[in-house]
Description:
The chain is of the alpha/beta class.
Amino acid sequence: MPAPTLTVRLTHSAERLVRMEHPWLYAQSIRSASRAGEAGDLAVIFDHKRALLALGLWDPDSPIRIRVLHRGKPRPIDRSFFAERLRDALALRAGLSSQGTTGYRVVNGESDGLPGLVLDRYETTLVLKLYTAAWLPHLAEVRAAIDSELAPERLVLRLARAIARTTEERAGLADGAILAGPPLEAPIVFRENGLYFRCDPVHGQKTGFFLDQRENRARVGELARGKRALNAFSYTGGFSLYAARGGAPSVVSLDSSRPALDEALENFALNANVPEVARASHELVCEDAWSALARFAHERRRFELVVIDPPAFAKAKREVATALSAYARLAELGCRVLAPGGELVIASCSARVDADALAAAIRSGAARAERRLGEWLRTAHASDHPVRFAEGAYLKCIWLRAEG
């Protein structure tokens, strides 16, 4: 059954944004709407000359009032439309399986033409994460498209915190619901660049794993040979395992979560047949990263490879200054445990902190530690996380080398 429609007209500046293929229209961009509308209604957007401009999903409960799905000539927004978007997304990721990777992002929301919707794959289980309740009326057709194009064994639903209550009230679906397939009785084991990892797509962070760092983890592995490695905010040990396979003789996984560290231990056990992993000493430290880094410095522990990948510090504009101060402090602490000539890798997943500001904060922290660092690389999202609009570029990673 086609979704109800409403006619929308925009401000002139918002029309320009749509023509520039920006996927979001905020409430203040709406000049008029034919009726109030409900979440998931199809917004039919006309320009000031009354020509059809775009189609999008209406969400009256979000500051992002419309998420743009289609521009140009009219077309039905239905199972065929969603299947077409899925095929396009799959074509971009066609080479991953041949690289020994069975856990990756299939649809990266706005950047794959399905704004507010993410689809991740872990072997034969798919995880559908929704960031707006506007998808709820279209869920059956989305599921049908997923089934026809990917035929998963299991489909898990994950929900952004902001819509979890609404989804339960309107659709009777809770975060972690199994939409199709058998119950999940144990963690899923998937491969990434030939390494095995466990994940829990029902309860784990994001959709069960931080897939966006895949290529950065691989690069850490390339740097690790012969270097003592420290992975701060290690979660389940992704960077740690790559460092071990890359030839690090010792690796420290540092996190405040004991369950996360237990998973890191399991991930190392899954890869015990890799000689380099078996040889590496793997130390688990369950402690607040800030205090542990300070303690390591006091104990004069030094590492030739230090990875610092904290959670998001700035989820709102007002938090940016505090976030930059936190990155500076982490850089200072990292420098105090970094061996001469060592590599320091600092990542930020705060969309509101840009790479230049992050680099400046790192330099400030290094100066307080009286260390000179040479920046030699900046990286971002893995290739299965394409970014086609500025606000989607949340992940940045700064690579530095101690000069003395």
